[in-house]
Structures are given as C-alpha cells and as structure tokens.
Amino acid sequence: MSPVRRSRFVGCGAYLPARVVTNAELAERVDTSNEWIVERTGILERHIAADGEKTSDLAIAAARPALAAAGLGANDLDLIIVATATPDETFPATATVVQAGLGMTRGAAFDVQAVCSGFIYGLTVADNFIRAGSAETVLVIGAETFSRILDWQDRTTCVLFGDGAGAVVLKASEGQGGLDDRGILRTCLHSDGRQHDALYVDGGPSSTQTTGHLRMNGREVFRHAVVNLGDVIKEALEGAGITAADVDWIVPHQANQRILEGTARRLGIAPGKVISTIARHANTSAASVPLALAEAVGDGRIKPGQLLLMEAMGGGFTWGSCLARW
Predict the structure, then answer these.
(1) Which of 114, 141, 175 is the last residue of a domain?
(2) Can you give the pTM of this predicted structure?
C-alpha cells in the first residue's frame, strides 16, 4: 500500500458546568419523577451552564486540556471547528470567539451545525482538510448549552438534555493506507430533510426573529435512530471490510439508553463495548460523543491502537459515523 495522510488523534479534553440538576429537582418543577425519567431514558442527572456561561466558555474550557494533552499551543493550530446548535450569537461564529479566547492569531475558525451529529460532521470536515493538505493540525469541539432552548414546562423534552463540551486535536500523520493506521479511517454522513418536524427548534432569525424552543416527536426520533444508527455503523464496517467483533469500543451519541441498547442488539454488539455516559450527562447534543470519548480515554478504557466507532443522529435528520484507530 502507498502512504496516505491520516488525521491522528493527539489529544482530547472535556468540560461540564459545575451545576448538577437531578431528576428529583426536575420533579419539583414539572410533572415527572425520577422513576419515569430513568425508565424511559436512563438519565439520572445533567449539568446546566451557569448564568452568563456561554457555549464558547464551555468550548474553551474543553479545548485547553485537549491542547495540553497534545503538547501544543493555540498558535500551533491551523483550524478550529466548533460543532454547535446553540451558538453564542447568530454571528460571528462561536469558533472565532474560541479562537480569540485561546489566543490563536493565525489560521481559520468556523462552526458546523448538524445538531447532535455535529461532532461527527466536524471530524469529517477536519479529516478532509488534513487529507487534502489544507491543514496540519485541527481542533474539533462539540459544545452545547441546550438548557437555553428548552421549554422547562415540557416534561417530555426538558428532562432529556444537558450542557457540556468535548474537544479533540487532530494532527496530520503518515499511514500505510490500511486498517492498522492510527487516526480516522472512514467517515459516513447522511441527512434527510423530510424529517424536520420530528425534532426542531420553533424559532430563528429569519422565521420568528426569536430563539425558540426545542420540539420533538420522541416516538419518531426513537424509531429512526435505531434504524439509521444501525445502518450507518454497518456502512462504516462494511466499507472497511470488518465486522462489529473487530471494534474495541462503540462511542455513541448519548441520546437515550434504550437507543444505545437497541442499536447494540441490532448489530450484535456486546453492551460492554458501548461507552455510556447518559446517566450523568444526559443528551448534550454535539458535545455527547467527545465527552464520552474523553471520559473513556481519561479512565483508561480506550487505549492507544484500539479501534473505535463513533456515531450520532440529530435533528434534520442528520446522522453519521466515524471509524478510527486511537
């Protein structure tokens, strides 16, 4: 095989706001209970950003340990990509706020918006920049403050989400073009705009001139998620010529414990191979995959050389997967 450029993971980091909101606390605000939430979602608690704590603040706090783990400074970066559906402002891009906050005075920064799939989309964009030779070192961040767009009177949605940020640093390296290469091996992206009404925010600059609130048809989202995520995992595995048994860890979007379990059953994946943080983090949208990744790297479960499959589905619908060797 001839040498190829690979996007290798050289650092990761995470940040969760200090405030923890338990199911019991939510039960005091809306008609719900800890038992109801746990049975349907697997969620026990979530982190909520403090007053004045913005998405960019969370992103910067996650980026710093990622850069430290990589042994790099902000000006070693060529590009920052922030995946978020809850930007600080309509414009400028939250990524440029992060760029300034980190002290990066070169390169470029922009946002990507694919809701819960945003981090997978961001990895794919970064990988293509690196493969094309347009960047050597890229910081990819998933950061959300979904608490800002929740209807706190709607028990079907307000119990599901939390705030947080996760980040990775990708650096160009030379591989041999095979599955033993370290770094991103394959990405698969999809969307289906016909499913808009199943999961959306009922506001925006050009529609209502307001921020709006998250609205969701949970039954439809669940039904599509198990099928779409199973399919996009199979697509990645078949494209690489491997099976689920070859994968060391599945690092999924943390939407619902039942979705995680249903997807694993559909693919014949052992539950012990699935990284789950939903009980403590809830659904942090674009931040959920990098938060789970950072936790599993930090506690030693994910080790250098292991094969990972990351996947997510979000409003739009959007969905995607990323096969990578850590």
Answers:
(1) 175
(2) 0.98
